[in-house]
Amino acid sequence: MKASGANPPVTVRVQRLAHGDGIPLPVYQTEHAAGLDLAAAVDVHHPIVLAPGARVLVPTGFVLELPPGFEAQVRPRSGLALRQGITVLNSPGTIDADYRGEVMVLLINLGGAPFEIRRGERIAQLVVAPVSQAVLAEVSDVTGTARGSGGFGSTGTLTPHSSLSEKSTPSPPKSAKAKKAPGRAAAEGSRAGSPTKKAQNRSGKAP
Questions:
Q1: pLDDT per residue over 159-196, tens digit each?
Q2: How many angstroms separate the first and last alpha carbons of the chain?
């Protein structure tokens, strides 16, 4: 399916290897999809069985020639990750513009059951994106910011749990506050007055 959008498409040259014969080219599944689906080019008679906790390099049968200024990122498929726990171990895997080897996908099984990788199985996504090369300039000091060196959760959570509970349980209106029943008020009054009567009786004074 041809992708459309604000950015013009970029041409990527693809070489099919012998063991990739019959494997479909990476393809966008929807009009505005970001990733091209990558299929496994394993032997049709010898699928790969990936045991729980194991990892494996899966061939795709293709070599890419990316134009300068672009990279390709190998990312997991959400469905495989959700249902079987299959993901890309080095996600996102990076394919540089000057790499001329076969595209390989490093999969790991984080699920609880073995997973069979068959020929033609869609195993990952390929996202082609522009990239800039940096020119590093060594300096004696860097510009200060309000954040400073804070990292690894230093900015906190989205909303404290206490704030969430307070907001979700509004206080009742004043008119809805419970009033003491007359009987309860009288009982409390008699309990409050009983120590005084006992003290008066002990002193010999009439109640």
A1: 666 555 445 555 555 555 555 555 555 445 555 555 54
A2: 99
3 state SS for the chain: CCCCCCCCCCCCEEEECHHHCCCCCCECCCCCCCCEEEECCCCCCCCEEECCCCEEEEEEEEEEECCCCEEEEEECCHHHHHHHCEEECCCCEEECCCCCCEEEEEEEECCCCCEEECCCCEEEEEEEEECCCCCCCCCCCCCCCCCCCCCCCCCCCCCCHHHHHHHHCCCCCHHHCCCCCHHHHHHHHHHHHHHHHHHHHHHCCCC
Residue type, 155: T
**Interval 49-81: pLDDT, tens:** 999 999 999 999 999 999 999 999 999 999 999
Cα(58)–Cα(22) distance, integer angstroms: 16
How many C-beta atoms lie closer than 10 Å to residue 109's C-beta?
23
Q: What is the CATH number of domain 13-130?
A: 2.70.40.10
Closest CA to 114 of 56, 57, 75: 56
